[in-house]
Amino acid sequence: MDKFKKIETRSIDWMAVNGIYLLRISIGIIFFWFGFQKFFPGISSAEDIATRTIDVLSFGIVQAPYSMPILATWETLIGLGFLTGKFFRVTVVLLYLQMAGTIFPLFVFPDETFHRVPFVPTIEGQYIIKNIIILSAALVILAWDQGKIISKDKS
């Protein structure tokens, strides 16, 4: 049993050292990957709902031909910020602003984001709702980046 305890301890130690770093890189990959797709019309599965959301949020000022390149740039910058760790506070602010827009379709397009409002989301709704974890992860990563993670006393 002692051998298993050592393996467990080493595994947990490795997770403690690398977990938040890997979480930061994972979010960076997601944002860079999804953002980069938006530079190419017709590639992103979120293009239709994203352009319509931006149209509503901007009161029709930012139209579809411009909204996707803007969103692509925005998301790609968030991805690069997470991947590099550079300008991280600004990156997290950009992420939170982007996420506010991402959540918006749940309220303005409920027929597309829910089968039964508010309990049974469509695939689009699930895609949006899962972003709650990204918002929480960004809080943890920023606190870690700023040296503010405090270990909890288990006694």
Describe the structure.
The protein has 155 residues and is mainly alpha-helical. The protein has one domain. 74% of the residues lie in helices and 3% in strands. It is built from eight helices and two strands. The chain has a two-stranded antiparallel ribbon with strand order 1-2. Strand 1 (114-116) and strand 2 form a beta hairpin. The model has no long low-confidence stretch (mean pLDDT 93).
Structural class: mainly alpha
Average predicted local confidence, pLDDT: 93
N-to-C span: 24 Å
How large a portion of the residues is in β-strands, by DSSP E? under 5%
Q: What's the number of helices? A: 8
Q: Helix and strand succession?
A: HHHHHHEEHH
Number of strands: 2
**What summary fits the major beta sheet?**
2 strands, antiparallel
Structural shape = globular
The Rg value, from CA coordinates, equals 19 Å
Helix content: over 70%
Q: State the domain count.
A: 1
Unreliable spans: none
How is the largest sheet built, in terms of strand order?
A: 1-2
How would you sum up this structure in a few lines?
This protein has 155 residues and is mainly alpha-helical. It has one domain (20-145).
Can you lay out the helices and strands and say which pair or pack?
Layout: H1 2-37, H2 47-57, H3 64-84, H4 88-103, H5 105-108, H6 110-113, E1 114-116, E2 120-121, H7 123-129, H8 131-145
Antiparallel strand pairs: 1-2
Helix pairs in contact: 1-3, 1-8, 3-4, 4-8
